[in-house]
């Protein structure tokens, strides 16, 4: 299924419009011509980027992205400023916003230590003059987008044939600013279980992993998988390895570690191999826990750039190395998904599943 997208919605853009994922065709229509009768806003808010879309339902009830834009959170004082900027280039006047973000809602406030600013749905309603702002976990949103992922928007790490009759739950895992995870269950409508699996206790296997843990966590403390399976976690692994080998840590950011590994730096490369090994163990645990016969999807900002490094590393073997469960895990495919617009599409899908809306004509 393809989604018409207007990559830039401002006459004088202030943020670079992202590339459209292969398989999601760009629309040649203007924002005036494309807007349907009941458009609404869908947003995917992370620690680094805020992605916004103008969305309306198609005749089959699936979301149609009419306009899309990605913003750097650090460049804006608050989310309401981003929403105003996005809407300024639209002829439509959406009255609803569905908001996906890491964390959970408590006492009306989104609890997430990685966000650039506080998120309070009621305050956004008031400040933006919206009728309703709805919230869901960002990986719950990504899981709702699973129905819209195919071979054109994902690449295999571990192939496995899954007959339609055997397709079951799908785990969605994503290392970004933190580590998100959710599980999609097929059905009419499908159901999604949001989890905080990234906070599960990290376990070391072998002497080097124990040395790394000793350097990144205080003794006898809780160390979550998120401490290593995230953008900051990758850099943490690299810095710990530099300490183990008495090397100067030349890489200042996670992106520097990826670039150095691809350029042949041995310590950066080993950091990515450690990352892949722990990711395989984590993904295998979730696959066993939820019986994810439909597969495991890895979605994250930098994962699509290191697919080749992950393929030649320990990820798949660590995924399979679960004792008597190995035959089961052999049947579970693993794919890497380009995050891109999926958070927006998934948030919109969840919103449409839970309300009655008139479809876009034609």
What does this entry look like structurally?
The chain is an alpha/beta fold. It has two domains: 31-145 and 341-353, ATPase, nucleotide binding domain (Nucleotidyltransferase, domain 5), CATH 3.30.420.40; 154-337, Hexokinase, domain 1 (3-Layer(aba) Sandwich). 32% of the residues lie in helices and 21% in strands. It has helices at 31-34, 79-88, 121-128, 138-144, 207-216, 231-244, 254-262, 266-290, 307-311, 315-320, 326-330, 342-353, and strands at residues 40-45, 49-57, 63-72, 96-101, 104-106, 109-111, 132-137, 154-158, 170-175, 179-185, 191-195, 295-299, 334-337. β2 (49-57) and β3 (63-72) form a beta hairpin. The radius of gyration is 21 Å and the shape is globular. The two termini are 15 Å apart. The relative contact order is 0.16.
Summarize the amount of helix as a percent range. 25-40%
Structural class: alpha/beta
Distance between the termini: 15 Å
**Largest sheet at a glance?**
6 strands, mixed
By CATH reckoning, the class of the largest domain would read Alpha Beta
Strand order across the largest sheet: 8-13-12-9-10-11
Amount of beta strand: 15-25%
What is the approximate shape? Answer: globular
Total strand segments: 13
Please count the helical segments.
12
Count of discrete structural domains: 2
Give the overall pLDDT as a whole number. Answer: 85
């Amino acid at each position: 299924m393809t989604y018409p997208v207007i990559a830039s919605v401002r006459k004088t853009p202030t943020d670079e419009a992202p590339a459209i994922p292969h398989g999601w065709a760009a629309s040649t229509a203007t924002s005036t011509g494309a807007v349907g009768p009941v458009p609404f806003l869908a947003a995917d808010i992370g620690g680094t980027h805020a992605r916004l879309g103008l969305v309306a339902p198609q005749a089959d009830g699936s979301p149609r992205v009419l306009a899309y834009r990605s913003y750097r959170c650090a460049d804006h004082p608050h989310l309401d400023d981003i929403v105003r900027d996005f809407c300024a280039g639209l002829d439509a006047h959406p009255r609803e916003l569905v908001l996906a973000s890491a964390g959970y809602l408590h006492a009306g406030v989104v609890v997430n230590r990685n966000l650039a600013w506080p998120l309070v749905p009621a305050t956004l309603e008031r400040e933006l003059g919206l009728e309703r702002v709805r919230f869901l976990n960002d990986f719950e949103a990504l899981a709702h987008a699973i129905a819209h992922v195919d071979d054109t928007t994902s690449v295999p790490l571990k192939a496995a044939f899954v007959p339609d009759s055997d397709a079951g739950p799908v785990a969605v895992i994503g290392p970004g600013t933190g580590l998100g995870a959710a599980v999609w269950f097929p059905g009419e409508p499908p159901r999604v279980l949001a989890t905080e699996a990234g906070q599960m206790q990290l376990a070391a296997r072998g002497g080097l992993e124990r040395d790394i843990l000793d350097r990144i966590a205080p003794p006898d403390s809780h160390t979550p998988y998120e401490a290593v399976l995230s953008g900051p976690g990758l850099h943490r692994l690299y810095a710990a390895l530099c300490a183990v080998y008495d090397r100067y840590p030349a890489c200042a950011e996670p992106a520097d570690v990826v670039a150095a590994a691809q350029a042949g730096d041995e310590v950066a490369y080993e950091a990515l191999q450690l990352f892949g090994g722990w990711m395989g163990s984590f993904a295998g645990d979730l696959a066993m826990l939820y019986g994810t016969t439909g597969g495991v999807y890895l979605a994250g900002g930098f994962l699509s750039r290191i697919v080749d490094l992950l393929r030649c590393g320990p990820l798949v073997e660590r995924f399979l190395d679960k004792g008597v469960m190995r035959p089961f895990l052999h049947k579970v495919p693993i794919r890497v998904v380009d995050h891109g617009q999926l958070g927006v599409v998934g948030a919109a899908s969840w919103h449409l599943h839970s309300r009655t809306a008139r479809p876009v004509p034609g």
